[in-house]
Amino acid sequence: MSQQPRLPDRSTDEVPKELTELGRRISKLPPELQNELEVAYDRVVDSVRRRRRILALVQEALSQLRLDIKYLMFDLEVTRNERDELKQQLEES
């Protein structure tokens, strides 16, 4: 049996309530059934946590990409303005 608690602390690591309920039901089973299901349950919980971490990383990357695009659009606009000003100066001289 693993040393980690089978029922995760919801305040630090959000696990769906259905999964938490399943863990509670598994803990009420007879020990021989509980041991069989515990391994599969732990794998599912790890998978859910991993997917949430990946989703958070993807969301963070998308936010950074949006910010980078805004900076690039600003730089492009400034560069165009500078180009137009230089063209105008060249035409005037």
Characterization of this structure:
- With 93 residues, the protein is an all-alpha fold.
- It has one domain (17-92).
- It has helices at 17-27, 31-92.
- It is rod-shaped.
- It starts with 16 loop residues before the first helix and ends with a helix.
Which helices and strands, and how do they pair?
Blueprint: H1 17-27, H2 31-92
What is the assembly state of the chains in this entry? single chain
Stretches with pLDDT under 50, minimum 5 residues: 8-12
* Alpha carbon gap, first and last residue: 85 Å
By DSSP, the count of extended strands is 0
What is the H-and-E element order?
HH
Helix content: over 70%
Query: What is the residue-mean pLDDT, rounded to a whole number?
Result: 89
Structural class: mainly alpha
Classify the beta-strand content into a percent band: under 5%
Summed up, the helix count is: 2
Largest sheet: none
Could you tell me the radius of gyration in angstroms? 27 Å
The shape is rod-shaped
The structural domain count equals: 1
Quick summary:
Helices cover 78% and strands 0% of the residues.
What are its keywords?
93 residues, 2 helices, mainly alpha
